[in-house]
């Protein structure tokens, strides 16, 4: 029932909001009250949200802002980021931090709806951008509004482009005053373009990280997927399992975060002034259990995400 309400509210929001044109919901999909990632999966989830960035009107790539205060204070770059489809789930961050050599400023100006090049793959996509200014790194971070996700399967069709010295990421996170709980997909633009790093944080623990050479480069569109179950973090690219870590699997309710950043440190690298990097996302499927939206009723009509995206 909870999942039906979520889908219904997405459908309502989409029909009311001219800028966001979602796919029409198949009637079978609207009846789903339970989900699993693939036909073979044995992890079930009761809520699902699908964010489709492929056909949004009036895409616009904003010019970079050069100035820490103005960058942090920048407004939303597109009406889409004021729609309930977005604001019910995501928040645009503008916090700043000293960094590890280069000051870092998150700016809403770095989260935008861009027109796709080359056609074919969808007219538009969500972009998160980082740009190196003379005295700081302008970065992008989108966090979930709530930190109540407890087990999920999340996937996105994404690619990373741009200069060395950046990290693009999709991850879960909480600090809650205790040791960090976090599971990461991280791409470093400094590495070869088929290398992805997967971690159950803290990454300083031996065996908490797996570094994978993918079959295809992340400069191309790839379906990145993360399955979080009570005892394991499992990561997939284009449907193929590429990493599985049980050690330090998060157990607390977490936030879901996308970011594109650099802090001038050894790990992110140092970006040259005037350069930039981006993560581009055509769609994101968030299928999850939530501590604040518990299941109502039995898991009777199970839908497989593979069949829906
Ligand atoms: C998600 O919640 C449902 C309903 O409570 C439960 O049956 C299912 O096992 C949960 N999934 C995970 C991965 O814990």
From TrEMBL:
Record's protein name: GH16 domain-containing protein
Keyword Magnesium attached: no
Lineage, highest ranks first: Eukaryota, Fungi, Dikarya, Ascomycota, Pezizomycotina
InterPro entries in the record: Beta-glucanase-like, ConA-like_dom_sf
Superkingdom to which the source organism belongs: Eukaryota
Signal peptide location: 1-22
Domain GH16: 51-292
GO MF annotation, one: hydrolase activity, hydrolyzing O-glycosyl compounds
Any one GO biological process: carbohydrate metabolic process
Organism this protein belongs to: Xylaria multiplex
Keywords: Signal
């Amino acid at each position: 029932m909870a999942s039906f309400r979520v889908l219904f509210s997405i459908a309502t929001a989409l029909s009311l909001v001219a800028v966001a044109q979602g796919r029409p919901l198949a009637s079978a999909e609207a009846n789903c009250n339970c989900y699993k990632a693939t036909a073979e999966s044995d992890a079930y989830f009761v809520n699902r949200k699908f964010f489709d960035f492929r056909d949004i009107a009036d895409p616009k790539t904003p010019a970079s802002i050069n100035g820490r205060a103005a960058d942090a204070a920048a407004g939303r770059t597109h009406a889409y980021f004021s729609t309930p489809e977005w604001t019910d789930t995501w928040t645009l961050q503008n916090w700043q931090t000293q960094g590890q050599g280069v000051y870092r400023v998150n700016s809403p100006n770095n989260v935008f709806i861009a027109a796709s090049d080359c056609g074919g793959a969808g007219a538009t996509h969500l972009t998160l951008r980082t740009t190196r200014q003379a005295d700081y790194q302008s970065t992008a971070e989108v966090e979930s509004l709530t930190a109540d996700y407890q087990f999920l399967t999340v996937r996105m069709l994404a690619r990373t482009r741009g200069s060395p010295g950046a990290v693009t990421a999709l991850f879960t996170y909480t600090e809650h005053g205790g040791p960090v709980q976090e599971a990461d997909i991280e791409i470093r633009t400094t590495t070869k373009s088929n290398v992805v790093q997967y971690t159950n944080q803290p990454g300083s623990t031996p065996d908490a990280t797996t570094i994978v050479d993918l079959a295809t480069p992340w400069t191309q569109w790839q379906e990145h997927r993360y399955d979080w179950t009570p005892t394991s973090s499992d990561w997939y690219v284009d449907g193929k399992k590429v990493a599985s870590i049980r050690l330090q699997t998060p157990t607390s309710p977490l936030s879901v975060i996308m970011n594109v950043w650099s802090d001038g440190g050894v790990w992110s690298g140092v970006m040259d002034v005037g350069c930039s990097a981006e993560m581009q996302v055509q769609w994101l499927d968030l299928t999850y259990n939530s501590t604040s939206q518990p299941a109502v009723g039995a898991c009777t009509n199970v839908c497989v995400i593979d069949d829906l995206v």
